[in-house]
Design the sequence.
DNA sequence: GATAACGCGGATAAAACCTGTCTGCGTTTT
DNA sequence: AAAACGCAGACAGGTTTTATCCGCGTTATC
């Protein structure tokens, strides 16, 4: 179990697909099946992104999610905080005040200010967060765009269209697509 | 549950006491009771510090631990790695290769090199680790030394001596110290 | 207007991890 | 010989993460 969880990983992969989908909403089910992850689990992650103002939801048939902000305005830190809440890197238990010499009543000099150990951890957490805030969805999407062939985006669009068409008129769907 | 755990917190607090104890070994039991933490739990942490070459153990009666290196040569990162092993900030599940369009056989362009998302997380992890590597036990011990009154170190020494004496000749120990 | 797709929220369960306890063993000082 | 000490392993309880299921309200399509 890592500090930055699979939930964040799923979220960012989905958001990168949303970068490419523009104004067309993508449902969490389609995104889950496209990537081979659990649809019901993904469905629990998206509301957090919506509450954080990262995606916008549209309900009902043909509903789904679109990015609520330009991809340049969504950092990795935004996504981590949205999905995981304010999870601390380190949880100081104020052990400095428990020293037996204090007999349950620690003096002011021992408990004033931030614990010296805690301060080091907070500094490390800040370094991590600053680093995460330096990269946006647009940065990673651009990097992917340089690797993927042009045909990939067309194929992706076809796949999504295929799913929508298949649901609209099931009789016309190809048999191997209907199974599953 | 934080990424940097209580085990690390306990370890560093103990190591700071070892900075002050010099060549006199301190037992994990005494360190635990001094700080009001679980002796049996602390006893599971010290062997990891010993394997990492941070402390040196001496067995038998009057045994215990001393720093194996100067306090200036022990960074917070050393302690974190020793206690937690190589715990990753993020565990990439290579979701990029699972895209349904690849039909189970992802092309080279999709899986070559480090996943773009993973790369961002690795960069954040490096920033955190670099930050942790910048502070040593000596730094924090010095900061504490500036806050604590001189009498604290004498009192601490007396407390440790008292425990050793109490065990050496229980009849001479003060009644309230013998309890517990 | 019925149906089905969709987002939303809560209840639930399984797995992993962290904390903490206990026991037995070998070593060393007293 | 006894007691203090480090060491290793087994074990239990609590929390977090992952995952599933169900029912509800909303909306486009037939």
Sequence:
């Amino acid at each position: 179990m890592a500090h930055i969880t699979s939930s964040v990983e799923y979220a960012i992969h989905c958001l990168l697909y949303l970068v490419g989908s523009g104004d067309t909403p993508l449902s969490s089910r389609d995104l889950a099946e496209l990537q081979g992850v659990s649809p019901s689990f993904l469905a629990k992650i998206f509301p957090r992104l919506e509450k954080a103002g990262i995606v916008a939801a549209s309900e009902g048939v043909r509903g789904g999610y679109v990015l609520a902000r330009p991809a340049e305005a969504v950092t990795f830190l935004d996504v981590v905080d949205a999905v995981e809440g304010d999870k601390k890197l380190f949880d100081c238990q104020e052990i400095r005040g428990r020293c037996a010499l204090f007999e349950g009543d620690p003096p002011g000099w021992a408990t004033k200010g931030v614990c010296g150990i805690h301060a080091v951890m907070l500094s490390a957490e800040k370094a991590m967060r600053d680093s995460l805030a330096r990269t946006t969805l647009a940065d990673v999407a651009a990097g992917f765009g340089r690797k993927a062939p042009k045909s990939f985006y067309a194929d992706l669009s076809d796949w999504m269209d295929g799913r929508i068409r298949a649901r609209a008129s099931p009789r016309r769907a190809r048999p191997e697509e209907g199974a599953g």
User: Anything to note?
Assistant: Residues 171-180 of chain A have pLDDT under 50 and may be disordered. Chain A touches chain B through 57 residues (CB under 8 Å). Residues 6-87+135-147 of chain A form a domain with the Arc Repressor Mutant, subunit A fold (CATH 1.10.10.10). DSSP finds nine helices and two strands in chain A.
